[in-house]
Amino acid sequence: HHHEGPRRVKRAWVIPPISVSENHKRIPHLLVQIKSDKQQPGGVIYSIKGPGVDEEPLGIFSIDKFSGKVFLNAMLDREENDRFRLKAFALDLGGVTLEDPTDLEIIVVDQNDNRPLFRHDIFTGHVVEGAEPGTCVLTVDATDADDPDTDNAAVRYSILEQGSAAMFSINVTTGEICTAQPGLDRETVGVYNLTVQAADMSGDGLTTTATAVIYLEDINDNPPEFTKEEFSMEVEEEAVGVDVGKVFVHDKDLAGSPNWLAKFTILEGDPEGAFTIRTDPYTNDGVLSVAKPLDHEVRDRFELTLSVQNEQPLEPVAAASPRALATVRVQVRDVNEAPVFRENPRRVSVLEGAPPGTPVTTFTASDPDSRQLQTLTYALLYDPADWLQMDPRSGTVRTKRELLHPSAFLQGGRYIALVLARDDAEPPLSATGTLSIEILEVNDHAPVLQPTTAVVCGRPGRGGNVLLGATDSDRPPHGAPFHFQLSPQLARNWSITRFNGETTPTSTCSSPYPDAGYPNHQPTPATPSDALPRSQPSQHPASHSASCLMPTLPLPAVLVVLWAAWARGRQRALRKGLLQSSRDDMRDNILNYDEQGGGEEDQDAYDINQLRHPELFLSRVKPPVRRDAPLSSATPLAPRKLPNSPSDIKDFINEGLEVADSDPSVPPYDTALIYDYEGSGSVASALSSIISSLTDEDQDYDYLSEWGPRFRRLADLYG
């Protein structure tokens, strides 16, 4: 083993950093000379590479390849490149590397060649007026491009200018601006413009300036004030919604802000609320307007007390205003006013058919202008039927012609006219009134019977009837329902009964005696329910009613015939079962169709001539038809032979009874017959009491002696 001794280590070539000041003006400038340890005279070639040589920025540095001297060929700017890192090479003449490449660092030394720069040319801040000292408003700041580790970038701030009073101060290192004194008043100075400065080298180097604008924010520290204590205005009467005038106020606070906007109130002088006041949002003035119509004749002047205040409450520091109240005097001017109809429409009534010249009403208006002497005149503005005339001075309306009803000019029974009232002012004014005239119905049309003539034909065993109706052109209450009555001549043999109460017939009435005789002439006309009958019949039917006309026999004749039938045929009828013991089945009921008279005292109810001269009466009557006889039975001959002396009533009746007794197949002809079923429970009195008893002892005929001489014979037989 061979032990080697210590050997010498080869040291690599090293180039220390080279410093050069920026902005060096002497160029080319030798920076350094590099040498290789293996340098042989004329045997080494040097080169450099990197930024500033063969990289951007090109051409700043260069090297002498034989001597190794490095030169600066351009001015340097530290703010662009504060150092350059290059590589140095050493080669022999054959291009073989003699040394490993080494670093060559060139440091650019800073010079104070940059001024501080503010971030903004103008800085803006806000602070409320009256702010306490020390209230910070804003901060200004500046930058310096020089080396921040040197005084070249050490910036200091100051306020160069801010007005006569130093109201603000600035922090020299931070640039914060704050209030320095009390008394900031926006109404005195609303905006402050400060000139601030930034200087490097800790305030002794390069400088720059900027502007700081500080706005004072408004507070409500000034109340609104009226520009004067009294205002005078005028307005015309009857004007509504018009502006009377303005009251002017002044407020030192910021215009358009709630601290400036005024609010007005009417404190006194307007208890009726005739005026209102609002604020003009652009001028802040109070605008007085009319809310209700003013009447010069009632009140011609007003004295109003107004107050003003801000929408925003006042600050406690604000002083009270000596002009917060003002007086407004308003004069109401008189103007011409139109007449007024106090009652509009005027409703009156006039009887139909009123003659021309009949007063209708006096329709007048009143003039509100009581302090002006004016005359009103009247005229008909609308009179479609030309029915009316009007006095132009008094306003009295009269009929010009007869008012007819019905008429196409009536609306719901009323006639509408328009009246014009005009004053004599300049220019004249007018008003229109409505006159509503009700045409009252008058009973001026007589009812008319329908039909006016009728013929009734009776068949054997059946009677007939006439259904009478009536019409009336009058309206209610002068029309239906009607009252019907017969003339005294017809009332002896005919009765009349109301058939229905209104207009439409629903049933008929019949005569109980087919041989009673029927009239063929018109009865007495019907009468409306509220008046006596008129003399003229109407040609225009308006309403209807109906009644039945029926014949009747004289009451004495009925009693005589019934008595004879009962005396001769009672036993026979009972034996044959024709007359039952049941009172309900007896068919001798006589219906009370109408008032038939008062017995003996009624001299018109019975014509004795019919018995004294039967040849005249029976010659007009057809032979009667037996309704109760069998079909196979022979009809009795009629008329029977008259006696030579018919004046003897007793013989005439006895002869008739003998004729009836001679027919063995049927009941006696003079028994009670069923002419029609009148319904159960009839309220009419019955004559069945004549034959209701089976024995004479059950009947009391003493009352026959009270009936007069005509029934004396019957009273003698049964009394």
CATH topology of the domain at 225-333: Immunoglobulin-like
The level of helicity is: under 10%
Mean pLDDT: 77
Could you name the CATH class of the domain at 225-333?
Answer: Mainly Beta
Distance between the termini: 209 Å
Roughly how many Å is the radius of gyration? Answer: 71 Å
The CATH architecture of the domain at 225-333 is: Sandwich
CATH superfamily of the domain at 225-333: Cadherins
- Secondary-structure content class: mainly beta
* Model regions low in confidence, pLDDT < 50 over at least 5 residues: 1-10, 502-525, 529-543, 552-606, 621-638, 673-677, 684-695
Number of helices: 5
Percent strand: 25-35%
Sketch the major β-sheet: 5 strands, mixed
Number of DSSP strands? 39
Quick one: overall form?
elongated
Subcellular location: Cell membrane
Domain Cadherin: 12-118, 119-226, 236-341, 342-449
Function: Cadherins are calcium-dependent cell adhesion proteins.
InterPro entries: Cadherin (IPR039808), Cadherin-like_dom (IPR002126), Cadherin-like_sf (IPR015919), Cadherin_CS (IPR020894), Cadherin_Y-type_LIR (IPR000233), Catenin-bd_sf (IPR027397)
